[in-house]
Amino acid sequence: QKEVEQNSGPLSVPEGAIASLNCTYSDRGSQSFFWYRQYSGKSPELIMSIYSNGDKEDGRFTAQLNKASQYVSLLIRDSQPSDSATYLCAVKGRDDKIIFGKGTRLHILP
Amino acid sequence: NAGVTQTPKFQVLKTGQSMTLQCAQDMNHNSMYWYRQDPGMGLRLIYYSASEGTTDKGEVPNGYNVSRLNKREFSLRLESAAPSQTSVYFCASSEISGGPLNTGELFFGEGSRLTVL
């Protein structure tokens, strides 16, 4: 069974600081990696995708991928109260199935 | 743009009853997915369809059946509902199926909240 692991949190970060979210996956054949944000009672929304080793930056968000270590992370700089949500790591395998981790609850402290 | 539309949004069933959750997308996507979300469990894949006429089991398929009626529609059926199937169900679709350039971004419906008594 393919697995995607995340620390469930909650992760509490002061406003303005950097939030660091981590994810590991078991399937070495995985091709695409995603971070979704989900507010309570809402659908998940994509915030970052990454396909090759290294860093990818988009505004305050940076995704990092290390396929050798089977590790993907998300950094949120200058954290805002509106960043308080559950962050879901998702991995797409060679079979096109997209598997999610259990999510990390992030709480930004004003 | 409607995107991904799920019906119904809320449903209460008694144990043993059957029902079908409907999902339709208007983005011409090949791939469609059904997930369930329980508290603290993230999203778990129930079934996946790579294209019209094809379906494949996900992580938690037991107790469910699916139909990919055409490219737009992907339905999820509970033949004999159980309290363990109380959950929020999400349908999603993604662009381009297969190949190394598949981005895989999922577009979600608003969810269907199902309670089985």
Summarize the structure.
The complex is a heterodimer of chains A (110) and B (117). Chain A has 110 residues and is mainly beta. Chain A is built from no helices and eleven strands.
Residues in helix, % of chain A: under 10%
User: Helix proportion of residues of chain B, in percent?
Assistant: under 10%
The poorly predicted ranges of chain B are none
Order of helices and strands of chain B: EEEEEEEEEEE
Quickly count the helices of chain A.
0
**Strand fraction of chain A:** over 45%
Number of strands of chain B: 11
Question: Radius of gyration of chain B from the CA trace?
Answer: 14 Å
Biggest interface, chains and residue tallies: A-B, 24 and 28 residues
Tell me what the structure shows.
The complex is a heterodimer of chains A (110) and B (117). Chain A is mostly beta strands. Chain A is built from no helices and 11 strands. Chain A starts with a strand and ends with a strand. Chain B has no helices and 11 strands. Chain B has strands at 4-7, 10-13, 19-25, 31-37, 43-49, 56-57, 64-68, 74-78, 87-94, 106-108, 112-116. In chain B, the strands form 2 sheets. In chain B, strands 2, 4, 5, 6, 9, 10 and 11 form a 7-stranded mixed sheet that branches. Chain B starts with a strand and ends with a strand. The model of chain B has no long low-confidence stretch (mean pLDDT 92). Chain A binds chain B through residues 1, 6, 8, 31-32, 34, 36, 43-46, 49, 88, 90, 92, 95-103, and chain B through 31, 33, 35, 40-45, 48, 50, 56, 58-59, 90, 94, 97-98, 100, 102-106, 108-111.
Features:
heterodimer, A: 110 residues, mainly beta, 6-stranded mixed beta sheet, 5-stranded antiparallel beta sheet, B: 117 residues, 7-stranded mixed beta sheet, 0% helix, 49% strand
Chain-wise SSE layout:
The complex is a heterodimer of chains A (110) and B (117).
Chain A: E1 4-6, E2 11-14, E3 19-25, E4 32-38, E5 45-50, E6 54-58, E7 61-66, E8 71-76, E9 85-92, E10 98-100, E11 104-109
Parallel strand pairs in A: 2-11
Antiparallel strand pairs in A: 1-3, 3-8, 4-5, 4-9, 6-7, 7-8, 9-10, 9-11
Chain B: E1 4-7, E2 10-13, E3 19-25, E4 31-37, E5 43-49, E6 56-57, E7 64-68, E8 74-78, E9 87-94, E10 106-108, E11 112-116
